[in-house]
Amino acid sequence: MNPPLERNRKFTAALLLAPMVLLLLGFLVVPVAGVLRSSFLDGDYLLEGTGFTVGHYLRFFSDSYYSSILWETFVDGVIVSLICLVVGFPTGYSLARLPPLARRWRTIIVILPLTLSLVVIVFGWLIILGRNGLLNSVLFNLGIISSPKTLLFTRPAVILVLVQQFLPFMILSVLSVVTQIDPVLEQAASNLRANRLVTFRRVIIPLATPGILVGCNLVFVLSISAFITPRLIGGNRVPMLGSLIYERIMSEFNWPSGAAMAFILFVAGLGFTAAFNALAASRLVMGGRLHAR
Amino acid sequence: MRDDFSDNVMKMAGAVVRAVVYTMLALPAVLVIISSFTSGTSMNFPPPGFSLQWYQRAFESEPFMKALWTSTYVAVIVSFLALIIGFAAAFAINRFSFPGKGLLQGLAFSPLVVPAVVLGIGLLYLFAWMHLTQTMLPLLVGHLVLAIPYVVRTVLASLSLHNRVLEEAAMNLRATPFQVIRRITLPLILPGLLSAAIFAFVTSFGNVTVSVFLTYGGNVTLPVQLFTYVDASYDPLVAAVSSIMIFVTLAVILTIEHLIGAERLA
User: Fold this and answer.
1) Chain A closest-CA separation from residue B266 CA (Å)
2) Per-residue model confidence as pLDDT tens digits over B212-226
3) Is A9 within a domain?
4) B240 in Cβ contact with B227 (< 8 Å)
5) Is pLDDT of B42 > 50?
6) Residue A136 reports pLDDT greater than 70
7) How far from B55 is each of B47, B72, B232, B234, CA to CA, in Å?
8) Cβ-defined contact of A123 to B234 (cutoff 8 Å)
9) β-bridge partners, A42
10) Is B245 exposed, middle or buried (CB count within 10 Å of its CB: 0-12, 13-18, 19+)?
């Protein structure tokens, strides 16, 4: 290709990419940087702060109330990811191995919670878990309980609803890697007299690890930053970092402090997933060496 | 033979897990729809009888109908803009070679990893500083950012799947690059483009986690209106409005499924 044409192509590529790059720089990178900057402002009210202080961060880490909420939020994130993995993996795997027609309706059921507004799903759970809701009336009619139990405003309820919301991400991540695993490999394993469990452990899991990791990361990050679900399902009794930030900013208008907490959430979440991925990758490499031996 | 037992246990456990998973995924939406037809005045389950009164109330409710209009308006504009911006970027990523391509792809998908709270307050802060919180602009821009990854992913997938022989043939017949794109490429990937636009529509239409921070000025979307309503109290009116959202979303999913097939829906 001659030089002027080559330059022309580069110019065209830049022109095509410019709108997206400008949009994301201006309205994703700049706002995140703005949150970082405003978290160092001295002051407690919306847009009134000036100067530079690390006070909001210091207060967060010195107050055991906040650190315990940060800890609980992360524990919840890990629990939700694990449950999603344990129930999402078999579902995603079987979905990948189904004939197209059988797959159709199941895929729609999996996609629906993703595309449906979060509020609608949470509202559905309020109908199930409410005092006069479905679960209470079923348990009552079966004679298991004699009076309606309070199921909402508990941590297990929040975890259950988070699992349902984010499970589709896990199922789809697993689905996308399993469809790339050739079924011949499983037949080969079974010809070599491996049973399902061994095939699963030695063939499918190692090959599906990238999808498992993507799914776990997505579910974890989404769970720790959740605030609609903890607020509506958990009330004030199940505080999570996301709902705390929402309240700090939208009800107390304490901007710098809320921004500091949001940034802690962002960085801690990134750090946690990066560490998890590095660990998983090193385990995988070592595991590969062991198998090769 | 000795392995039969563990095989059977796994088979049965898998069947149970799948049944629970599909029930759990569908249950909230199904219950919302059932509750919306209640003749009672509270959210007790099971509902005492059938009526359409809450739908009538929903269509008569001014805040909800205004919010439905705002949501639709924003979602239509967002899907249109996201499609143009996302297609241009995906086309450049797919057909041109340039340094830093990996980084650019990372940037395109980065809205997925930034927590909604961080993006929401960041945008609120930015638009407050520009004195634009009273306009529809924060919602439009916020939803546009959120829709980009979905559009880029869908368009990239259809660009890399379609056969380029026809484009080469057209070029051999001396069609200009513009003619090739307009007459060959775009018609061929039309289903992919439509589903990308629809993905952008649903992303915008259903979003609440970023929108709550951007409806400060009074342009309230339907999910945010529902959130503030449920936060205070809830009655079958919410069920009726939520059912309307479910019907819209379901219609949209079925459309995409029809366009590109279930196996590419994911």
Assistant:
1) 6
2) 999 877 789 999 999
3) no
4) no
5) yes
6) yes
7) 15, 19, 20, 15
8) yes
9) A50
10) buried
Residues on chain A touching B200 (C-beta within 8 angstroms): none
pLDDT computed for residue B231 by the predictor: 83
Amino acid type, B250: L
Extents of the domains making up chain B: 61-264
Task: Give the ipTM.
Answer: 0.88
In a domain, residue A14? The reply is no
Mutate to test the interface with A, among B93, B96, B105, B125 (most CBs of A within 10 A): B125
Of B7, B84, B227, the CB nearest to A196: B7
Per-residue pLDDT band for A48 (boundaries 50, 70, 90) equals low
- Quick one: tokens of B118? 């961080």
Q: Confidence band (pLDDT; 50, 70, 90) for B266?
A: low
- At position A30, the amino acid (one-letter code) is V
> Whats the size of chain B, residue-wise?
266
- Measured between alpha carbons, how far is A31 from B123 in angstroms, rounded to an integer? 5
Distance from CA of B159 to the nearest CA of A (A): 15
Task: With respect to residue A109, please indicate whether it lies within any of the assigned structural domains.
Answer: yes
**The residue count for chain A:** 293
pLDDT band at A197 (very low <50, low <70, confident <90, very high): confident
Residue A241, domain extent: 51-292
Q: What is the DSSP string of B20-71?
A: HHHHHHHHHHHHHHHHHTBSSSS--SS-SSB--HHHHHHHH-HHHHHHHHHH
CATH code, A113:
1.10.3720.10
Nearest residue of A to residue B207, measured between CA atoms = A117
Residue A50's beta-bridge partner residues?
Answer: A42
CATH fold for the domain made of B61-264: MetI-like fold (1.10.3720)
Going by C-alpha positions, the residue among B203, B210, B224 that lies closest to residue B83 is B203
Q: Are A123 and B208 a contacting pair, CB within 8 Å? A: no
Cα B188-B194-B200 angle, rounded to 5 deg:
140
Q: How many CB atoms lie within 10 A of CB A31?
A: 24
